[in-house]
Write a structure and sequence with these properties.
Layout: H1 11-38, H2 49-62, H3 64-67, H4 102-111, H5 113-117, H6 134-146, H7 150-162
Helix pairs in contact: 2-6, 4-6
């Protein structure tokens, strides 16, 4: 069995110990920075024409068949159908989309309502993770927000500020 080296630290040894300590400290700082960056709240860009144009195209492809070409939703969207499910709600100013913070809207889009509501909630809306990435989903949500009147956009901004990290 080898005995530990109990000799006093030499300047060379102290250098290695200091370098190791600084390296570990730097690694911890880098990890903390990455963790806080990935936890940053998602941001919409309803005033960026390129993002809105991309979001509009993605909406037309993936969302309009249920939520309507003009974001009007399905008829009687607040009344459950015979199967117990709600029709697709509108995403225009008459709906409730703007009542939710962006992070929740993003989760609804990517993972579906059941992932947000929990339990055995049933919905016709699938999660789009795997079809859309986070950037695409935020582009769709940016397009939707771009269509809201200024007053509704401002109200959504207030909701968003209450949920900021």
């Amino acid at each position: 069995m080898t005995q530990p080296d109990l000799r006093p630290a030499t300047p060379r040894r102290r250098g290695w110990i200091t370098a190791l300590g600084l390296g570990l400290l730097g690694a911890a700082a880098a990890w903390t920075w990455v963790a806080t960056q990935s936890a940053a709240a998602p941001v919409l860009h309803p005033d960026d024409p390129d993002v809105v144009r991309r979001g509009h195209a993605l909406y037309a492809t993936h969302c309009a068949s249920c939520h309507g070409k003009n974001l009007a939703g399905q008829p009687e969207w607040r009344r459950r159908r015979a199967d117990g499910r709600l029709p697709a709600p509108p995403h225009d100013a008459t709906g409730h989309t703007w009542h939710h913070p962006t992070a929740q809207l993003l989760q609804l889009t990517l993972d579906g309502p059941a992932a947000v509501v929990g339990g055995d909630y049933q919905s016709d809306m699938p999660g789009f993770r795997g079809t859309l990435d986070e950037v695409d989903a935020l582009a769709v949500l940016s397009y939707i927000k771009s269509t809201w009147p200024a007053e509704i956009r401002e109200r959504h901004d207030v909701i968003e500020s209450r949920h900021a990290h």
